[in-house]
Specification:
It is globular, with a radius of gyration of 18 Å. The chain has one domain (about 1-200). The model has no long low-confidence stretch (mean pLDDT about 80). Helix 1 (about 1-15) packs across helix 8 (about 145-170), helix 2 (about 20-35) runs antiparallel to helix 9 and helix 3 (about 35-55) runs antiparallel to helix 8 (about 145-170). The chain has 9 helices and no strands. By secondary structure, the chain is mainly α.
Length: about 200
Amino acid sequence: MEIFLIKGLIIGFSIAAPVGPIGILCIQRTINYGRKSGLFTGFGAATADGLYGAVAAFGLTIISNFLVGQQFWFRLIGGLFLLYLGIRTFVSKPKEKTKKDNHKSLFSDYFSTIFLTLTNPMTILSFVAIFAGLGLGSIKGDTSSALFMTIGVFIGSAIWWLILSGGVSLLKTKFNTSSLKIVNKISGIILVTFAILSFLSIFK
């Protein structure tokens, strides 16, 4: 079973590592609100990755077909949420004494990221493609192997977010109020760009 756990670790890490909107959110929240905020943001993504990994590992075709079939709505809702986050990030003012007041909660960081990740149907397609490419389709009838694979995906994804939030946290001391403002502006623009790309993908 250990081999499936290790394979899951590798898959989870490789899915999480490319910098996308979640990565930008993790970096921005870590810089503005601290390492815990970035870590909970990442753990939200890891949870969603684990759920999608379970769909692929257990061969839940009905669920995966539903997710793919509802791409229009998922991309629209996900794009709108990204747009909201991008605008809010862009206009936020990272003043030291109001920094905590602007931050809702770690649970908000966690669940908002789960929602954002789950509204991207391409994630499940990525998992299905990787599982097929690695010849892992045979585990769909093996509950134990699929479970270990799912756990591995979550842990692998979580490791990446732990590394990213930890690394950014170490660099946090180099940011003053002016540089934090620049980070928010850049992060906001990138998130809005991802939102626009999500809208455009609807018409492909």
